Please model this.
Amino acid sequence: MVEFGGWDMPVQYPEGILAEVKAVRTATGVFDVSHMGRLYLSGPKATEFLDWMLTGSVSGLRVGRARYCVICNEKGGVIDDTIFYRLEDDRYLLIPNAGNRPAVVAWFQRWIDEKFSPGCTMEDVTANTGLIAFQGPGTIDAIDQIADTPLSEMRPFSWAESVILGAPIFVGRTGYTGEDGFEMLVRGTDVVKVWAALTGSGASPCGLGARDVLRLEAGLPLHGHEIDEETSPIEAGLGRFVRFDKEYVASAILKDQQENGVLRKLVGFTLPGRRAPRAGYSLLHQGETIGTVTSGSYSPTLDTSIGMGYVLERYVEQGTKLDLDIRGRTVPVTVTALPFYTRPRRT
Model:
């Protein structure tokens, strides 16, 4: 157990990180992700407010669907990346990251007070609810055996409501592992009951270690590593989640970056063996430092070491050969397309 974002979190369970990663890639795994925030935004100006705060389109999202996008500050830096769900025409659920929740709440409240009040209210239910991620190819068949209503036919990035062992659940077909699966919002008093139902179905309990390896294999950013308040979504390769046809916080800066380019960009890279690159290691070209590692790990799924980092824009082409400085010793790495791993299509 370790402290993470103000919560006590498991790094791994007795089976270990490699077994947990394998379970999620081949069967089912379950994660307690109650450290993630849960914010409800409601009111006649809620849609207008979120369209001002988020890089993606809010008004164009249908009730019953979810969308991934980015929350930027006025300089274009990433306060957080998030998924939000449209519950009704004027009611939304937004999931900020663990350590970012206070910053997101403060940022949102500032703009509600300055620009959208009255007409938009925010309710933080993080302290009295839980969030459980049920991930892996086996979850699609398992979920209908566990929940009281069929959920296996849900579309990706949609939501539904159901019941597990008498506990009401809000279910999104979303996740942070690169696999298919579900995330479940439950009452705090029901978390243990729902967790027991999922593990009782055969799902392997998984901790932070496996979650980090899985998201890295899937090329998914982690705040404080690939994204932060000094890094823009354009630099981070998240331009597909940025709308350039609406006005919002930082829209002018992001549009300029998209049109005129940026000095550095996020890349993936691979190196043979199990020597894991670590955040902060330097990336070199012909002895000159041209970038820095943000995340790295041995990938048990691919049986090679993988990493992500920022390099000068002229070195982002796939196949570019660079060197990694591992405590004064250089090893060759190859710039690689992200994601490293893509789940097989279901037949």
Q: What stands out?
A: DSSP finds seven helices and 19 strands in the chain. The chain has a mean pLDDT of 97. The longest strand covers residues 288-299. The longest helix spans residues 101-116.
